[in-house]
Amino acid sequence: MKRCAWLVSFCLLLAACSSNPYLEQSLNPAELQGKDKTWFEKNWGTPSGKSPRFFGGETWTYYRIAGGKSSLPLFNFSPNQCQITLKFDKEEKLSDYSYSGC
Does the residue 25 lie in any domain? Predict the structure, then answer.
């Protein structure tokens, strides 16, 4: 019985720490195809924040609501806030990305 509980908790831990496949399917091809800032601004909207990078380029941050949880007693909904960071190089092409809370 204890082994079964450990196995279930381990599987839940792996599922919680895994990546977001929907976001990966959107950002990975964008990086490989060399999408630029204008493409993201046209398709994703204006970023929530922008900051310059040390060796040129820019870092953009988007905040989005990605699902959430509702509690039983009063059915309150608490949204998950997703932070997506896009890093552009000197040529204004996507060079790297990261996300958290998605």
Answer: no
| Structural domains of the chain, count | 1
**pTM here?**
0.65
Residue with tokens 């509980």: 5
Rg (CA), the chain: 18
Does residue 84 form part of some domain? Answer: yes
Cβ atoms of 32 and 68 within 8 Å: the answer is: no
DSSP 21: H
- Report yes or no on 12 lying in a domain: no
Residue 38 pLDDT exceeds 70? yes
Tens digits of residue pLDDT in 22-35 = 666 667 767 767 77
CA 12 to the chain's CA centroid = 20
Q: What CATH number does residue 87 fall under?
A: 3.30.1450.10
**Residue in the block written with tokens 């204890």:** 2
